[in-house]
Amino acid sequence: METGPHYNYYKNRELSIILAPFSGGQGKLGVEKGPKYMLKHGLQTSIEELGWSTELEPSMDEAQFVGKLKMEKDSTTGGSSVMTNGIKAKRADLVGEATKLVYNSVSKVVQADRFPLTLGGDHSIAIGTVSAVLDKYPDAGLLWIDAHADINTIESTPSGNLHGCPVSFLMGLNKDVPHCPESLKWVPGNLSPKKIAYIGLRDVDAGEKKILKELGIAAFSMYHVDKYGINAVIEMAMKAVHPDTNGEGPIMCSYDVDGVDPLYIPATGTPVRGGLTLREGLFLVERLAESGNLIALDIVECNPDLAIHDIHVSNTISAGCAIARCALGETLL
């Protein structure tokens, strides 16, 4: 019997690490350093030790984007913000530019039949990653691991930070909104609400709750994890995105590390207590690896600059690397 992950989709075990060091989807610099820190922690070598051949695929110039962000922050004109109903969709031009670059890089990887592991950066980069994966696998299901739903539209967002809006762009919910940023009109917006399931939710805005209910999106909060257990929730999520095949079919996982409780992963931009334990967070991707259905993985929102102590940096980066290793087949025995 063949063992190991991804044997249904990636028998060649070839993988590309896409670097997406972008922080413009939110207001805190430092999250662009996450990919570099994960590589310094030995992530690429540890993936190769699992039997994968790897290559690096940079998607953008980190220094260039940080420079643009600093210039915009210092600007008195508001830069590329777009005003809608009194709320600014902040740094819209930069988010559009960055996510298109990520889209191009991930498209190159998936079209070459390599597994895309994308390291963010903030969660706005998933606009690019998910769009590219859906081009290759239009029937793919998306598991969104996060404390937050990230499905605000540019009309409902209370903060204007676009890392809280990627799912609404992926679903095309902003296309008919007045003043939708021109820079993000490239997004296909073809993610079906029947093809996404959330795990780990515990901080959902009122506007997001309305969208989730109206569209009937599968959403498993920490209440469900506590009630049913993490394995049952994963099974329910996989069946929700592939109901006709009992959960079997291509699955992409977009993993915000704040889905895990900040006790374990403290250096992240929007921590919310009461989340997944580290073991639950790792079991989740171990189970996806075991299923053989995982076709792409994002790991986002590691921000070493927000650590209070060096141990917080170490804990956060090592946990992010562990998520990747477990998703790619690492087992205890």
From TrEMBL:
Enzyme class, first EC level, given as a word: hydrolase
Q: Do you know which InterPro entries this protein is assigned to?
A: Arginase, Ureohydrolase, Ureohydrolase_dom_sf, Ureohydrolase_Mn_BS
Free-text cofactor note:
Binds 2 manganese ions per subunit.
Is Ion transport included in the keywords of this UniProt record?
no
Q: PROSITE patterns annotated for this entry? A: ARGINASE_1, ARGINASE_2
Q: Which cofactor does it need?
A: Mn(2+)
Offer a single GO CC term for the protein: nucleus
User: In which pathway does this enzyme or protein participate?
Assistant: Nitrogen metabolism; urea cycle; L-ornithine and urea from L-arginine: step 1/1
Keyword entries, A-Z = Arginine metabolism, Hydrolase, Manganese, Metal-binding
**One GO-annotated biological process of the protein:** arginine metabolic process
Q: Which Gene3D superfamilies match?
A: Ureohydrolase domain
Give EC number(s), comma-separated.
3.5.3.1
What Gene Ontology molecular-function terms does this entry list? arginase activity; manganese ion binding
Lineage: superkingdom: Eukaryota
What is the catalytic activity of this protein? L-arginine + H2O = urea + L-ornithine
Question: Which NCBIfam families does its entry note?
Answer: rocF_arginase
Q: Family per UniProt? A: Belongs to the arginase family.
- PANTHER family tied to this protein: ARGINASE
**What is the name of the protein in this document?**
Arginase
